[in-house]
Amino acid sequence: MTSTTTQPANLQPLIAELTGLEIITDSTQITKLSQDYYTFSPILQPLLSDKRGALVVRPMSEAEVIQVAAACVKYKLPLTVRGAGTGNYGQCVPLQGGVILDLSRMQAVKWVKPGLACVEPGVKLAALDKQTRSSGWEVRMLPSTYRTATIGGFIGGGSGGIGSITYGQIRDRGNLLAVRVVTMEDTPRVIELRGDDVYKVAHAYGTNGIITELEIPLAPAYAWAEAIVAFPDFMTAARFGQAFSDSDGIIKKLVCICADPIPTYFAAFRNVIPAGSHCALVMVAESALEPFAELVKAYNGTVCLQKSAQEASKGTTLVEYSWNHTTLHARSVDPSLTYLQTIFPLDKEMKLVEHMYQHFGDEVMMHLEFIRIGGAAVPAALQIVRYTTPERLADIIHYHEANGAFIANPHTYVLEDGGMKTVDLEQLRFKEMVDPYGLLNPGKMRGWEERAENL
Q1: Is the pLDDT at 7 greater than 80, yes or no?
Q2: Matching fold, domains 109-220+419-436 and 224-404
Q3: How confident is the model at residue 314 (pLDDT cuts 50, 70, 90)?
Q4: CA 388 to CA 196: how far, in whole Å?
Q5: Alpha-carbon torsion 4, 7, 12, 16, what sign?
Q6: What backbone phi and psi angles, to 5 degrees, belong to 241?
Q7: Is-contact 331 337, C-beta < 8 A?
Q8: What gap in Å lies between CA 288 and CA 299, rounded to an integer?
Q9: CATH number listed for the domain at residues 109-220+419-436
């Protein structure tokens, strides 16, 4: 179905090639579907606010994806792949216009087996989790946007989330088993990648292939209780988070530590968390609540909220106050706030965490999410920053890096400048093969842009 909005003449041949597909040409809808949550960053806002696609196509099948790819190659139009648009760095914002390929209608769960699932990219993570739990399995890791985020978007633009305390990050071998990818060649092909080859397209922002199917591992499903634990000082809360994360016998899914005043931004819990407290938001297996209570006692924490798994499954869940949702709630109170993404080095004494907490005070509010890296639990931080100027933000980032913390910069839309800091040659070589004209999400892969300049 095609809307009746008039399009520039040069799009009419493309639209004719896509007869029978769902095409959106309404300018308001196109604007909405050309954006994500890059607004978290005051650096990205002026760079991306005026970027728009020319039209949106919503395929229902891999065959329709191939049809769109062939048409875009024929007319040399940029194509930007989109899931639910819950990313934070402009991953799906079209820098050079063209076609937005919205894969949110490809929602088939092809099959679920013990420990495995095969899905289309538009499947919402919450819906998949609900379906797999009926057979005793669950999705290994989820973003805080799991209610609306799609599996394809998470693999293409995310890195970890709730569950990463046990299973690490998407990039860890075994967390993505296979993908089917449509190419942007003169005659588009479908390529299946398995094993380590999947990382040619994982976390590549859709710059080097259109993912149409994914095979992912599942985890045994547990009944997850939720709790908020309050502490009178931040470092006790942080050390509790480290100890809890290190407690191999206590089954857990979320270990989130928020320094005061972050809990004051959580409207739903203002009457629950004592004023001036620092808190831990956790998900722990119901079967492990007794040893969990002993650990809380050892750190003189106070459980100010606890929900059974059944209670936690209804209404507000702590998931939506963790990870990027922590920043979302803070910004809903004060839109001038922004954030960082930091991985602190492994240090059981947490000396660098304590130094940064003392050094910056409330200018950089400490928010830790414990994740597993190389077999050890380490604090990753999504600190909330009181933004003043670009120069001051750059100084804060530099100070962290100079002192040994790794910053995955959330204030750039360039793939390599965010986390990797270097060109991934495997991803670049794959792009050269499957997208020879550089039409997929142009402007996001520095390796390709530098290559093009040198030709």
Answers
A1: no
A2: no
A3: confident
A4: 42
A5: negative
A6: -60, -40
A7: yes
A8: 17
A9: 3.30.465.10
